[in-house]
Amino acid sequence: MATRMTANGVSTTTTPGTEQYEVFYIGYRHRSKRYQYDYRHTDGELFSYVAPTLTECRRKRDEWLNSKVNN
């Protein structure tokens, strides 16, 4: 499946400090909505997550960012 977030299986989120997301549906008759979320940290590391809501994706990103600060 081709998406705007990937090219040849590689994330197109390349600019540090930016995020991208897109919605896709899974299950019978597309009943279950999911968000694919990518965030490129200012140090270049990529965070990727899939969740039912964009809010949850961003919450997980924030947890990830906090863990980077504390390590």
Structural features, described:
The chain is of the alpha+beta class. It has one domain. Helix content is 24%, strand content 39%. It has a three-stranded antiparallel sheet with strand order 3-4-5, with helices on one face. 7% of the residues are buried.
DSSP strand content: 35-45%
Q: Mean pLDDT across all residues, rounded?
A: 86
Number of individual domains: 1
Order of helical and strand elements: EEEEEH
- Identify the overall geometry: flat
Radius of gyration computed on alpha carbons = 13 Å
Q: What's the β-strand tally?
A: 5
Low-confidence stretches: none
Main β-sheet description: 3 strands, antiparallel
Topology record:
Layout: E1 6-7, E2 10-11, E3 18-26, E4 32-40, E5 46-51, H1 54-70
Antiparallel strand pairs: 1-2, 3-4, 4-5
Give a quick summary of the entry.
The protein is 24% helix and 39% strand.
Keywords:
alpha+beta; two-stranded antiparallel ribbon; three-stranded antiparallel β-sheet
